Amino acid sequence: xxxxVLLAFLALAVPAVxxxxxxxxxxxxxxxxxxxxxxxxxxxxxxxxxxxxxxPAAPGxxxxxxxxxxxxxxxxxxxxxxxxxxEPAPPAAPPRVLxxxxxxxxxxxxxxxxLRRERRGGVLARSDGAGRFELEVAADADLxxxxxxxxxxxxxRVTVVRDTxxxxxxxxxxxPAVDLAGHVESTDGARLAGARVRLGYEGALRRAFPLPLDAxxxxxxxxxxxxxxxxxxxxxxxxxxxxxxxxxxxxEGASVPAPTAxxxxxxxxxxxxxxxxTLAGLVLLPDGEPAARAAxxxxxxxxxxxxxxxxxLPLPRDPEPDQPLVAGLKDQGVAYLPDxxxxxxxxxxxxxxxxxxxxxxxxxxxxxxxxxxxxxPLEGWVVELTAGTPxxxxxxxxIVVEGFGGPRLLRMPTGADGTFRMDGLLERSYxxxxxxxxxxxxxxxxxxxxxxxxLEIVVPDGGVHDLVAGVVVSRTGLPVEGxxxxxxxxxxQGGGGVSWVGGASTVTDAEGRFELExxxxxxxxxxxxxxxxxxxxxxxxxxxxxxxxxxEVARRCHFRVSVAGDTDGGVLEALxxxxxxxxIYRFQANGWxxxxxxxxxxxxxxxxxxxxxxxxxxxxGGDEVARREVVLSPEGVNEIDLxxx
Length: 645
Prior knowledge:
Blueprint: H1 3-25, H2 66-74, E1 96-103, E2 114-117, E3 123-126, E4 132-137, E5 145-148, E6 153-155, E7 157-160, E8 169-186, E9 196-200, H3 202-208, E10 216-218, E11 222-224, E12 230-237, E13 243-247, E14 254-257, E15 263-270, E16 278-284, E17 295-298, E18 301-304, E19 310-314, E20 325-329, E21 333-337, H4 340-347, E22 355-358, E23 364-372, E24 381-385, E25 411-413, E26 419-425, E27 429-436, E28 442-449, E29 455-459, E30 464-473, E31 484-494, E32 497-507, E33 513-520, E34 525-529, E35 536-539, E36 549-552, E37 556-564, E38 570-575, E39 581-582, E40 584-588, E41 591-595, E42 598-599, E43 607-610, E44 615-620, E45 623-629, E46 637-643
Parallel strand pairs: 1-8, 8-15, 16-22, 23-29, 30-36, 37-46
Antiparallel strand pairs: 1-4, 2-3, 2-5, 5-7, 6-8, 7-10, 8-12, 9-11, 9-13, 13-14, 16-19, 17-18, 17-20, 20-21, 23-26, 24-25, 24-27, 27-28, 30-33, 31-32, 31-34, 34-35, 37-43, 38-39, 38-42, 38-44, 40-41, 44-45
């Protein structure tokens, strides 16, 4: 049950229950409760008021007078007609009806496909002769993740039903099912136990499928070869252009075209991998003994030490000079060599000499507690360091030196006594943030020296807007129904990405309106998303009233490009009316990716751009080789033809 529905139910049910309690106790009702019953009071606390005598009548009931109540108690054989029975519980909300189509890889309807939840087996519905289906979901049940599976069909993707698309026509992708089996061997004929075999078809599906895949997410069809190198993939989708690939440690990966009919004699042959340069080393405890199972990391690669403390790590071809080499073990601290990337570059093309790292055996910490303005402990607040020492690059949030070998995320929820502790820190100061996970109220602290163990974070009273409300509209001013508006707090940004935590959310009504209560008055933003709009982030003006906001968003326009001429090395750009580049997106249910330029080799299939796009341009080597002015529609898929000069 959603939060809004729950509050509405409580606002109706609590006064009715209290009215029944008053009747049972024979308490005197309010004397001025005459005429139509007032609306149910706003529910500010789950606790019942101490004085029940001033409660209004339950909605739809006329209050009983004190004299008639006493008469009813004195003469039960002649009960007063004014003593109304308790109001019956409100009827259960009607089930939600989901409608959609089951389509094959090329968009053709599939009949007789069983619809199921992704991880539960019962059949919810079957597609009819036109591929259409209809099913009901109880109002209080989780919205499903749907697949078309069984009776000779296998799912291609998972369709995710959410508040923002449950009234849309859903699309479920399926295909005829086949069984694929065989074995994996090396080029010298040795069977490869433990090889991973995967059916891949995302590229082929995007090229073939004529509709957006925004409300779906990908599926994995994988198997592990047994001791004899044998594998079996049962009831997987058959799709032209799919590939069957295998990987195994110490070997190059290999793939073959995936059959579209069942086969049990497939052979995947892998060649031995070329020897890559590696870094060898040793990790020791403070007493000189080997540190077994210590974590060692350089860039994106990491490993665990052997029982004798030794390790071997692959070396990247082009590390950044300031990348550190780090080792850590729980309760033994971290050791690291800053700027180790420079040593790797200096030794190239050979690996640098073996290195030894000695763990300190202890580490510094930042600890303390979070309290309110009266000094009372606050449970469930998250305390975190906002800037560690990065090991990885171009990754959000980054892997950091601090806590390496133990908890990688330097964030800790407070306990019932408001306390927190973060270990594994270096001898430096760290900026600290504390936020309440439910409301996202947030405080930023000046840098705190590692070794501080009595830090007290005092959260002042207030700091929230009682109401944040407004309307979501398109560029043309039309209301946007079904957009999700949520509160967000950015926790990390950089490396080409942003990470954040989400708070309260709601969905706009038919007039595009939304309301959110208790929104923090600092540090948060509003995110607007949904199936019809491109992502929009709105920073709040925390010094001004927030109950009449107008959030203007751009609608999604789906398009597919057809390019005539030489496309080698070409990239596609979308421009707005001012000639500024726009993001080109690929959406799916669990996220999106976007870029300001798209390789024409990756432009197969349906992509998305905002309705602000008025021009598509193809460039090669910085030179413009094609241009097309467009008027895009947010309905359907826009076909864009380009001719490269």
